[in-house]
Amino acid sequence: MRFSGFLSSAVMVILFVGCFMAVPEVVTAKHGGGVTRHYKFSIRMKNITRLCRSKSIVTVNGKFPGPRVVAREGDRLVVKVVNHVPNNISIHWHGIRQLRSGWADGPAYITQCPIQTGQSYVYNFTITGQRGTLFWHAHFSWMRASVYGPLIILPRRNESYPFIKPYKEVPILFGEWFNADPEAVINQSLQTGAGPNVSDAYTLNGLPGPLYNCSGKDTYKLKVKPGKTYLLRLINAALNDELFFSIANHSVTVVEADASYVKPFVTDTLVIAPGQTTNVLLKTKSPAPDAAFYMLARPYFTGMGTFDNTTVAGILEYENPKNPENAPLFKPSLPAINATNVVANFSNMFKSLATNKFPINVPQKVDKRFFFTIGLGTNPCPKNQTCQGPNGTKFAASMNNISFALPTTALLQSYFFSKNGVFTADFPDFPLHPFNYTGTPPNNTHVINGTTKVEVLPFNASVEVIMQDTSILGAESHPLHLHGYNFYVVGQGFGNFNPKNDPSKFNLVDPVERNTVGVPSGGWVAIRFQADNPGVWLMHCHFDVHLSWGLRMAWIVLDGKLPNQKLPPPPSDLPKC
């Protein structure tokens, strides 16, 4: 299927005037083909009412979801974040490569210490070789429950999309709403060892929709004209849940994943994991039907724990319906909650566009190979305490059975200034004790706890990582996110990875390029990337509950020999611990 057409610069700018408009922006002088765009994020408490309950939440500029940040490929973003709330915070620019700007990546205690109350920090980075839909979010504890927003990267001026010109572009952000304070929820879980209380609702652009009690007025409505093409920029900012999404009686064409163009394909149902973004083209019906259509999202889940088994609804409405009072409201059918086959089939549809204009560069040879198990585990209950995890233990999570502990000083600072004692460079390349990963789990489910171990990579090494789900405490999908890089998803399958047979099936021609990939429930995924970005880069599960339990690790990518292959010193306002 081929698409042509372009979206002019003037039209692009006009399309982005609308809901949750970006914070005031100052554009300064041009530089190297782009411009510098200045934004200010004021972290403030704001009273918000959902599900007939009002509470004070942490926001950026008093907006929920947060404000839209818009830039073009090649632009420089300068965002001053000022913290006016009691909580510590940091902001991550999810999916931005941060080439030689790792100090601006944002994860607390990895690339920076958090921004404390009354302090500020300026995130300064250039968008290089990227265009599409990403998002920004808090990267401290569970603060991103309410601190998130879209990050839209338009093509360079006079550049076109590789698909038909959309009539309008619409960001759609999925989130989770907790009636309780999310910080209290995770703190209680970490104290008792039990799974955290689940969210009370999912949200679509901050609104739960009419399928929840006392929420009819809080419904997102997308009003469309007949016979037009809309570009929907889908972002899963939910804390702990992958989601199925469908629009009744409408199919969409997928054209982009994680800000990388893909070969277009048509689908009625999408799957989107936390941390993932998907751009789709929606062609509206003509003439306008005398009906409205639910846009529904609900979770995909295969684990053993509890989860928020509810459905968020928005409504697609055509302009000027003939009989609005009696128009039917159609509802799509969504797959079963545990429909792993649907998820696998959907994932296999993604292929990079891989054209001369948008080429890919998959490492054909591999310098460094790694095999990481991904899954849950336990910690023993401390003496004189009753724990509520499995068999009286505490829930934990790990990679290669290492439950990663955050240091008290940021890893990047420690590495850059050669301070000892914060981390050790001995993260295991392979499981220390191999077992039948997707078969009967071992009797001992304890993880190695309280360590800050990293992997060290030479500059420009080509890397392959096999990520293997385990059946310990139940097989489930894990969305793994790598900071500072995109990677190519060269293979995936069910059961245990077979190093003799499976690599021959790898796609090294047009694999999808992503920053977040779902490790299949009861299966494995293979990724490759080129370690061309010096610094310290977090890799973690994007379920925040698993992140809190330790399902994370970090890569140190060494400097290269040339000046443009080295990480510059930190900015003077880098927060201190």
UniProtKB/TrEMBL annotation:
Its EC number is 1.10.3.2. It catalyses: 4 hydroquinone + O2 = 4 benzosemiquinone + 2 H2O. One of its GO terms (biological process) is lignin catabolic process. It is found in: Secreted, Extracellular space, Apoplast. Binds 4 Cu cations per monomer. GO terms for molecular function: copper ion binding; hydroquinone:oxygen oxidoreductase activity. Residues 1-29 form the signal peptide. It comes from the Eukaryota. Its cofactor is Cu cation. GO terms for cellular component: apoplast. Keywords: Apoplast, Copper, Glycoprotein, Lignin degradation, Metal-binding, Oxidoreductase, Repeat, Secreted, Signal. InterPro entries: Cu-oxidase-like_N, Cu-oxidase_2nd, Cu-oxidase_C, Cu-oxidase_fam, Cu_oxidase_CS, Cu_oxidase_Cu_BS, Cupredoxin, CuRO_1_LCC. Residues 43-157, 169-320, 436-559 form the Plastocyanin-like domain. Pfam families: Cu-oxidase (PF00394), Cu-oxidase_2 (PF07731), Cu-oxidase_3 (PF07732). Belongs to the multicopper oxidase family. Lignin degradation and detoxification of lignin-derived products. This is Laccase. It comes from Gossypium mustelinum.
